[in-house]
Each structure stands twice: as structure tokens, then as C-alpha cells.
Specification:
Elements lengths: L1 H15 L6 E6 L3 E6 L7 H5 L6 E4 L3 E4 L4 H19 L23 H19 L2 H13 L3 H20 L6 H13 L1 H12 L4 H12 L7 E2 L2 E2 L6 H20 L4 H64 L5 H12 L4 H5 L1 H16 L4 H15 L4 H11 L1 H22 L4 E3 L13 E3 L3 H26 L3 H7 L3 H8 L9
Helix pairs in contact: 1-3, 4-16, 5-8, 6-7, 8-9, 8-10, 9-10, 9-11, 10-11, 11-12, 11-17, 14-15, 14-16, 14-17, 14-18, 15-16, 16-17, 17-18
Length: about 500
């Protein structure tokens, strides 16, 4: 039954994105089906958003359909299969341009959810154009290296949390070592995966990137001295692996410019691994190790000495960072912190931005009792919002409305300050993986204190974010004119605008 449901969702989506011949590539992340299109004009956005399984759509470098965690991983294979079946069954034919509609006189109408979604899409497109700077494009490429690792981080993180709980309770002592091995295996080799993905992203041979990065975790590096210090396995972590694999890409490309084709298969891989490996051992591992240690020290001191203020700033600015694309710079930092201490202290604070967004959306729902269209959008998007999927609420509600986006940030700042304050008081905790947010983050929480206290603080932060986001939006999120324009039943307005069909009295 579940397979039938996922296939039905995929079958409903496919014609609305222009059919199989309009799809050139398919991928997915934690929450979104990402497709590349031949002709963007063939997509039926409104019909797509109206599908029950679709939580929203986002345009970036790919067309992204938000389906939510879990669902997207099940729908994507069905979507891929339908695309392949469609291509095999029907030869590609040129798309017939749509017949232009006959222009009609505009009729007055209330602002609907569709209007706000169109505004949100326009804002997203404008932001996308502004984000096409070399620095932001680099951040996007770095994000592409780490995003494929998130499912493994989540799975291993949940198992690590379960293992910690069993250890604290003294239950199933025979199972604990097995769970520890399962949870730690991926993290012990994460540098290899980062190296592989880095080389793939920057145009090198992925396996060579992985081979160079594997040097970092090889136990034998403990016999090597660099800069007067003995190296340790894993020194430099994911930052060292990223730098080593990036160097390998450039060495490989340099080799291919002068190595004869007859010798390329032998000489290029050898020189790539040798040159990059030596530079990694006698330079990059030490430098990346110092950088990783500095990141960990800075994060600990920041929250230990100014946790409340730091939480307020981080929680309040995270949504704007997402809009600017700068949040991608945090992914290697999160991964480095997880590698060092087992969890990232920053993610629970940043997750408060989503709580402020949810509170703001509920306030919008309450303040616009007669706007059925917008209320329906909020009602359908709130469950995903509670689970940390905020795109439908951001691009369909708060961002196009303007002021509610600002008040949502206020809610995020309040929740961040709450969580940061407890870090300042010595109750440091974080997430064992990146990706999930909202309620989905509960199974991934870990820290120095008991699990009960950690969960209670995080839940308290969410509650503060919800309440402050709601209050700020309810009282300050609308001008009088906004309430007049938005608080109208679109159907009633449309009916009133239609000419009467009653016969005229004479």
C-alpha cells in the first residue's frame, strides 16, 4: 500500500513538470525532490502545489519539490522509474506552445495564498540572481560535498544516542559494544567520503580524492613528524580531507595537460596520490588540525561566556542567512564539531529559527480568519513546519507578507537566547547529526548532562520560539492596511465582482 501511495504521488507530479521528456536529471536531499528541466515554462506550479503530498516548491539551481523527510526518499525511485518508462514508451517530441489566453479586463480580488506563493517565488528568483556570486557559488559547492553525507550522519547519530541511553541505564550490556561500532564506523572514515565527494564536485576522479583523504585516518601517520610534532590519525578531520582532495583535483588536471595519453592511466593517478599525499602529510594535516581545534575552542567559549547573546544573534539571523545562501558555510563547521565532540552545539540554537517561523504562521492564521486560501496553505504546511521543514511557510506565507518574516526572526532570536543561556550556565548539548530540525531533532540530542534535562531545555527553547514568534506577529506583524487587504474571503470577493445574471427590471 505504501509503495502504491508513493508511486501515485510520483505519477501525479510527473505530468505537472512537463512529462518525462522535460526531465533531464533527478536527485533528492533530506526533504526535496530535485529535478533539472529542459523547459521551465511547461511546469504547472499551482497544480503542483495543490497536490496533497507536496509541501511547497523552491527554485534554485534545480527545481525542488518539497515532500518532507522520509517521503522524498520513497517517492524519488518511483519518479525515476516513471521517467524511464515514459521515455521508453514515447519518443521525444517538441513541446507545443500553449495558446495565449484572450486578455480580459481585470477584476478585483482579495489576496490569496496563490498570490503570496507567486510573490515568494519571485523573491526566491531575485535572491537566486543575487546569490550567483563567486563566493556564494563556492559555498553551494561545499554544501554539495556534505549534503549527501547527511543520511549516514542521521542514522549513526540516532544509534549513538540510543547507545548512550543504554549505557547510562545499564541495559543490554552485550549489545552496547555492537551499537558503538555501528555508530562510530562511519565517523571514523568520514574523511574518505568527504574526499570522494570533493573530487567529484570539483571535476576530479572521485576515487583519487578518497584515496588522498584516506591518508588522514590511516593509523600509521602516528609515526610521522610534521612541524616538530607527531601527527595523529584523523588530525585535520573533514577540513583536511576537503583540502587534500581539492589539491588532488588540481594535481590531476595539471598532470593531464602534459602526460602522454599512452602513459596517462599509470602516471596521472600515481603522481596525483604521491604529490597530494606528501603535501597532506607535511602541511595540510597540521594546518587543518589547528583550524579544527580553533573552531571547537571558539564555539565552546562563545556559548560558555556569552551563550544568551550568541543564541539570540544566531537564532535571529539564521533565516536571513538561509535567504542569502550563507548558511551553507556552517555545514563544514557542524561536521567538524560532530567529529571532535560527538555533537554540534550550534544546531539546536539555529533550529529555533524554525520555531519562530511556526509561531508566526499560527499568528497569521489567527489574524486572517476570513482568508480561507491562505489559512488552508498554513494548515497544510504547519505539520511539516513542526518537523523542521520550513520552506512552505517561508516562501508561501511569511516572506511575501514581509513583516511576519521579521517577527518570525524575533521568535527565533528568543528561542536561541533561551537555549544559549543554558549553554552559558554549563548545560552544553548539541545534535549528533545535521539536517533535521524542529521535533525531528529530539532523537539526535546529546550533551554533558542527562538526556531528560537536555530534552527539556530544547523543548523549552521551541516553546519560547513558538510563543514569541506568535506574539510578535500577532501584535506587530500587520499594518491596518495589510489586515484590510488580506482579511477578505477571496471567493466572496470574486463572486461580488461577477456581473449579475438576473434579468434587468423594466
Amino acid at each position: 500500500m505504501s509503495t502504491d501511495k508513493n508511486r501515485a504521488t510520483a505519477a501525479a507530479i510527473l505530468p505537472l513538470v512537463g512529462g518525462p521528456d522535460n526531465v533531464t536529471s533527478i536527485a533528492h536531499c533530506m526533504t526535496r525532490l530535485r529535478i533539472t528541466l529542459r523547459d521551465r515554462s511547461l511546469v504547472q506550479d499551482e497544480a503542483l502545489r495543490a497536490l496533497p503530498a507536496v509541501l511547497g516548491v523552491v527554485e534554485d539551481d534545480t527545481y525542488q519539490i518539497v515532500l518532507g523527510p522520509g517521503t522524498v526518499a520513497r517517492v524519488t525511485p518511483e519518479f525515476e522509474a516513471l521517467v524511464e518508462e515514459g521515455r521508453a514508451a514515447t519518443p521525444a517530441t517538441p513541446a507545443t506552445p500553449a495558446t495565449p489566453a484572450t486578455p480580459t479586463a481585470p477584476t478585483p480580488h482579495a489576496v490569496t495564498a496563490e498570490d503570496l506563493q507567486a510573490q515568494g517565488a519571485a523573491l526566491k528568483e531575485a535572491q537566486k540572481a543575487r546569490n550567483a556570486t563567486p563566493f556564494k557559488l563556492l559555498l553551494r559547492r561545499i554544501a554539495n560535498i556534505f549534503v549527501p553525507l547527511i543520511p549516514a550522519l542521521i542514522g549513526c547519530g540516532v544509534i549513538a544516542g540510543l547507545n548512550g541511553l543504554l549505557t547510562n541505564l545499564g541495559w543490554l550490556p552485550a549489545v552496547v559494544p555492537a551499537l558503538a561500532a555501528i555508530a562510530s564506523g562511519f565517523m571514523s572514515l568520514i574523511a574518505v567520503f568527504v574526499g570522494h565527494n570533493t573530487a567529484k564536485e570539483f571535476g576530479g576522479t572521485p576515487i583519487l580524492g578518497g584515496a588522498v583523504a584516506a591518508i588522514i585516518v590511516f593509523p600509521g601517520v602516528a609515526k610521522i613528524d610534521a612541524f616538530g610534532q607527531q601527527l595523529s590519525p584523523g588530525q585535520g578531520g573533514v577540513l583536511g580531507a576537503l583540502a587534500a582532495a581539492l589539491l588532488a583535483v588540481y594535481v590531476e588536471k595539471w598532470c593531464r595537460t602534459w602526460v602522454p595519453e599512452a602513459l596517462d592511466v599509470l602516471v596521472t593517478p600515481t603522481l596525483t596520490v604521491l604529490i597530494s599525499g606528501l603535501v597532506t602529510l607535511f602541511g595540510l594535516m597540521f594546518l587543518a588540525g589547528e583550524a579544527s581545534a580553533a573552531i571547537g575552542t571558539f564555539a565552546d567559549r562563545l556559548l560558555a561566556t556569552g551563550g544568551a547573546f550568541a543564541g539570540l544573534v544566531l537564532g535571529g539571523l539564521f533565516l536571513p542567512l538561509v535567504m542569502l545562501g550563507l548558511h551553507q558555510a556552517l555545514i563544514p563547521i557542524h561536521t567538524t564539531l560532530i567529529e571532535q565532540s560527538g555533537y554540534t552545539v550550534l544546531l539546536p540554537i539555529l533550529a529555533m529559527a524554525g520555531a519562530g517561523q511556526v509561531g508566526a504562521a499560527i499568528a497569521v492564521y489567527c489574524r486572517l480568519p476570513r482568508n480561507g486560501s491562505l489559512r488552508a496553505t498554513i494548515k497544510s504546511a504547519l505539520p511539516a513546519g513542526f518537523l523542521g521543514v520550513g520552506e512552505p511557510l517561508i516562501y508561501g506565507v511569511s516572506l511575501p507578507l514581509g513583516r511576519p518574516f521579521v517577527t518570525a526572526c524575533v521568535g527565533g532570536a528568543a528561542g536561541g537566547a533561551f537555549v544559549g543561556l543554558f549553554n552559558q550556565l554549563g548545560v552544553a548539548f548539541g545534535s549528533t547529526a545535521i539536517g533535521p530540525s524542529g521535533w525531528a531533532l529530539f532523537p539526535l540530542l546529546d550533551g554533558r548532562s542527562s538526556a531528560g534535562l537536555t530534552i527539556a531545555i530544547y523543548a523549552g527553547g521551541l516553546a519560547v520560539g513558538y510563543l514569541v514568534g506568535f506574539a510578535a506577529t500577532y501584535f506587530f506583524g500587520f499594518t491596518r492596511q495589510m489586515l484590510t487587504d488580506l482579511n477578505t474571503d477571496p471567493d466572496a470577493t470574486a463572486a461580488a465582482a461577477e456581473p449579475s445574471r438576473e434579468p434587468a427590471l423594466t
